[in-house]
Amino acid sequence: MNQITCANIVSTIFYLNSIDDENSRSHLPWRSSDRSNTFAEWTKIQTVAPPDNQGKGDAFSPTDLAATSLACCMMTIMGIAARTHGIDIEGMKAEVLKIMADHPRRIASVEIDLHMPDKSYSPKEKTILDHAAHACPVDRSLHPDLLSVLRIHWKD
Question: How far apart are CA 95 and CA 139, in angstroms?
Fold first, then answer.
């Protein structure tokens, strides 16, 4: 019987410099509590405020990461389903558009265009992958006012 075990993730966030400093950054080094992983023990993610909110916009903003996490989660769940059902999705690509709202400032919508590889998928495989994408825990965790749009582009 195959089991998938989720490792707990430990995050430590360092805020460096003030918002007025042109070098203002938040650093999010993180590591898995499971030391048997294959990625580097510490991975650094750098964030800054976007230009429309007093920042330079020369790195990801926290809301960029939230929108990107949604697409990554969908692709991960699709990957699990693809492995389970023997479907080849190598080369799948996502393009993410995040739209902000004011009053209050928040993510209004995330539009994800998933481009599937140039392969022929049966109707059953398409249904499996579509359902997997919509079973993403990040999507299920977002505020109901956030509009999440997924468009899957099949080559055939």
Answer: 16
